[in-house]
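Repro case for the chain-ordering regression, as requested:
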Amino acid sequence: MDTLLAVRARGITKCFGDVVALDGVDLDVTQGQIHGLVGPNGAGKTTLLGLLLGLAVADGGGLEILGTPVGRALAAPDGVAGFVDGPGLYPSLTARQNLAALAALRGQDARTAGIDDVLAQVGLTDVADDRARGFSLGMRQRLGLAAALLTRPRLLVLDEPSNGLDPAGKKHVHGVLTRLADEGTAVVLSSHRMDDLEALCSEVTILATGRIAFSGPLGKLAAENRELDYRLLTSDTHAARELALGTDGVRVVDDAGLRNDADVLVVRALVPALDELVVGLVRAGIALRELAPVVSPLEAAFLALTQQQEAGR
Amino acid sequence: MTAANVVADNVVPTRRVPVSRGYRFELVKLVSQWRIRLLVLACWIAPALFVAAVSRQSTLPVDTLFGRWMHATAWAGPLVMLGFAGTWALPLLTSVVAGDVFASEDRLGTWRHLLVAVRSPGRIFAAKALASLTVLLLLVTGMACSSAVGGVLAVGNQPLVGLDGHLLTPSDAAGQVFLAWACALAPTLALAGIGLLGSIALGRSPMGLLLPALVALAMQLAQMMPLPVAVRLALPGYAFISWNGLFTGPRQLAPLLIGIAVSLVWAVTATVLAYLLFLRRDFTNLTDDGSARRALLAGALPLAGLLAATVAVVAVTTPATGSGIEQDKVQRSVATAFAHLYRMQTDQLNRPAVTENQLKATAACTKGSVADGAEGAGNDWRCVVSWHLPGVATTGQAIYQLDVTPDGRYVADGDGPKEVNGYFLVRTPVGDAPNPLWQFDGNVELLATSPKG
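-- result from build under test --
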């Protein structure tokens, strides 16, 4: 195996009193990879991110970050940056002063630390000299990302970085994360926004009640998954419905009426059966105008796996 | 070779941020706050304005130590300010600065950010403690310098009348005034340590912010109670009072040094407790607001133990017994102050000079109906001062009513004869002037032993 690991966790456990936050968690994140972390509230995502950032130490198991075994002391190795539960900003300082203070803390000269560059990367150049007190949540998130970028991280840990972002801000953040990954930085991010994770991540880990429910590439997740609901918009809904009813492995979900859209057909199928339906529609001369999963494969897998895990307990 | 090992070859181990950089970072954060900027401005400007304004008024704050001399010398103003600072300003300033330095990170939710950046809770603690100490020093220095400048500009660099009536030259007075302010730093540090402890133990709770002020208030109330001397000296706020001993001759150094030592022990103990509590904190828990139980077990109980220990040490190692206010000490103090002030009055009236030795002043004091062995604080002390003038056969006598407070301070109020101490003005060759013998402040040294025989 030649891949360089930025994070290697084996059997990590962490308890808070009687509460088991992490229970035997394994995690591998390679350099240059954006790795998503999903799970319901209380699944242990923030605890795991906190361990990566050196905010807490595991009670058991082994953790290597950027090749350095993490000891019992609170502190992450150099090259790790990020935030959990929102970025830490000082409201009495401007965006530029927040970054300059952070640069000075790391012994960097504020003039040469690249503050303007990182502000431009996250789209905050226009408000660089405004106090952080007046920043919206999205601007705070972007400034937090800029603060992390200032350290030129090789492992970037972000908790819900898309919270509060408008489309422009989201575009900036996605662009920055993708470029960082291209340059070899490993990114671990948690989010409840499945569309973000699907757009950004090559691998995901699903946590449920402190345990790993799934970890691996998104494609593998889709393959492991069960039937999905798909939304079809065709030129002849009635004929399409008849065709769907006659296709093996395809079931019509009769909730289109609930969606207040009589032209929409919702079917439940695995991918091969869906392919067959699409071919049938085309052969029958029915135009397929829209085909999309009702919920994303990741979200469906997330719901299925976490519910399964909960039921197993 | 494993993947992790491949990476390990290129990895720089964890580098913690030096305390000096963390210190600068904390200073930037503190100074960027408007309330801190306003406090610094206020401490460097307001005392000068206050001293200058009050010194030029016809009515002086005579109920404040040295207040009655504010019209006469620049150096009374800074001491009036010091009395006010020890009672109100320093505890409140300590609350705002040290009481909030940790709690502010809780309020802003920035602990995790700070810990990721600095990578060492111990260094964060050191940087925060040093930064808050620096700001406090800046504030205290501002008050001392500002009040001195205000006094010099408004009144001039004149001699100061000490607490036993002797005159301090302007340079001596200036030195003693700044020394007194320096001594007040010790109890300020003790309050700062308590502030750090409260800020950590109680988190965002307002009690964390108010703790230094509340402790200072409790100490002041305790000083007003008729406590045994050993307990009084073992309280960390006593050094806010014991600087008075610098303005007597000889200087009353024992209570001053004990007060400073006790304050410093409290400062160190409270800071160490705060440090230990901080290291044990769970930074992954955002809702950590401290707990009353933790504050009690890790903060209040050890400090209560420290108080008991210092009371025991002071009681064993010093001649401290009872209230410390005894009849012969009061008599000596009043007679000494009277002799010094009589010389001043003699000079004002342009009479032949006389020395304290020639006056041979003595005082006979009673407290209420107790004529022999009187002791304790109260406003029912009455003293008859007797003195001799060279070449005059009769013995002069004057009466004073004394209000002695439990900390040993007293105000002597002249009760006649009118020509000596019964009227607030004396007629001098250049017009009417305040009568130095009419009312004066004095100080009984609580630790001084009575001469036997």
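Ordering looks correct now. The first strand of chain B starts at residue 160 and ends at 161.
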